[in-house]
Design goal:
Elements lengths: L1 H9 L4 H11 L8 E6 L9 H8 L2 H4 L2 E6 L4 H9 L5 E4 L1 H9 L4 E6 L6 E6 L15 E5 L4 H11 L8 E5 L4 H6 L5 E5 L3 H11 L4 E5 L11 E5 H6 L1 H20 L1 H11 L5 H15 L10 H15 L17
Parallel strand pairs: 1-2, 1-3, 6-7, 6-8
Antiparallel strand pairs: 3-10, 4-10, 5-8, 5-9
Helix pairs in contact: 3-11, 3-12, 5-6, 6-14, 9-13, 11-12, 12-13
Organism: marine metagenome
Protein name: Thiamine pyrimidine synthase
GO molecular function: metal ion binding; transferase activity
């Protein structure tokens, strides 16, 4: 019997093989864990600390889940893939969910990781002093080809009394945005807390330069950031699975937030190519982004409404209801 238990700990066994083994030893086999492939929306980074910690600490296995985290290819694609049933869960943001819903999609955020929009603009302090929206006049800003910066930045400028055309926006390959800023090919770059901000700062330090960060949230921009996204179909068909996943995930984030060094170790164990210093910075930035007035992961309905009020005009959308985008039911 010990050999059979050991075998189940080491390899995944098919349902048919499990039945035969049970017959050989005369003992029923425990129910197999529910498998989940989690879409990280992008490359592995510190913002995924809670998911990876929950995997490594066994929080998922304790509730009958076998979770694997895989890279994604951007928030828009990830949201659409969840809506289409290619993934049950992923890391997404309400901006892409509003776009998805405007086209008939049925995705829903079931827990907030970033209580605030985690983006701004990075710049090199030796070249520019960008401390307020009024400082951006005449500069060139680079962002990935499909980044929301190209739509959101002009609207944000207008909210702060500046012209939408105050900056020149360049659509770039996302892989070259960071180094292009350091090399002086652009004046400012899209910059994400818990993500590429740490990478830009590392590159700049190597070049003897200093990075400045203009945070959108400091200037009339209080909208919800990213979180755990699933579909209404998954919620309807297996609410217990959703509850187990959400509970274990935010247990992972609570542990990671209290133990950032250990959480970073888990990320590097899963993804050895990561830079430890950059990853630790991302984990710590995620801790700050998760800070809110209520229970970890809880979503503020008023903030969701503000998100829609910002995103709708920016993208010409006016038919999405706040209550269709989120639920706190699985965090109760």
């Amino acid at each position: 019997m010990k050999h059979v238990r050991k075998l189940f700990n080491v390899v995944k066994v098919s349902a048919c093989t499990s039945f035969l083994l049970a017959g050989l030893v005369g003992t029923p086999v425990a129910n197999a864990a529910d498998s989940i492939t989690f879409n990280m929306s992008w490359l592995p980074q510190g913002s995924m600390s809670g998911v990876i910690t929950a995997i490594e600490k066994g929080f998922y296995s304790e509730v009958g889940l076998d979770v694997e985290a895989v890279r994604g290819y951007g928030g828009g694609r990830t949201t659409n893939e969840i809506d289409q049933g290619l993934f049950e869960f992923g890391y997404g943001n309400p901006l892409n969910m509003v776009l998805n819903h405007s086209k008939g999609g049925k995705t829903r955020i079931v827990g907030a990781i970033n209580q605030h929009w985690p983006a701004g603009l990075c710049h090199i302090r030796e070249r520019h002093k960008l401390d307020a929206p009024s400082d951006l006049k005449g500069i060139t800003v680079g962002g990935g080809s499909y980044s929301p910066v190209h739509v959101m930045l002009p609207v944000w400028l207008e909210l702060n009394g500046e012209s939408r055309d105050a900056v020149t926006l360049l659509k770039m390959d996302g892989a070259v945005v960071d180094i292009s800023l350091v090399e002086g090919k652009i004046d400012a770059a899209e910059c994400w807390l818990g993500s590429n901000k740490g990478l830009i700062e590392k590159l700049a330090k190597q070049a003897g330069l200093t990075v400045g960060f203009l945070n959108y949230s400091d200037f009339n921009f209080d909208i919800l950031g990213s979180g755990i996204v699933t579909s209404d179909k998954v919620i309807a068909e297996n609410p217990d699975k959703v509850r187990r996943f959400v509970t274990a995930t935010f247990r992972g984030y609570a542990y990671a937030n209290a133990n950032p060094e250990e959480a970073t170790d888990y990320l590097l164990k899963q993804f050895p190519v990561l830079d430890r210093d950059v990853t630790l910075q991302q984990v710590k930035e995620t801790v700050d982004l998760m800070a809110g007035s209520g229970k970890l992961g809880m979503i503020d309905p008023a903030q969701v409404q503000r998100t829609i009020e910002f995103v709708g005009p920016a993208y010409g959308i006016d038919s999405v209801a706040a209550e269709d985008l989120y639920t706190n039911d699985f965090l109760q």
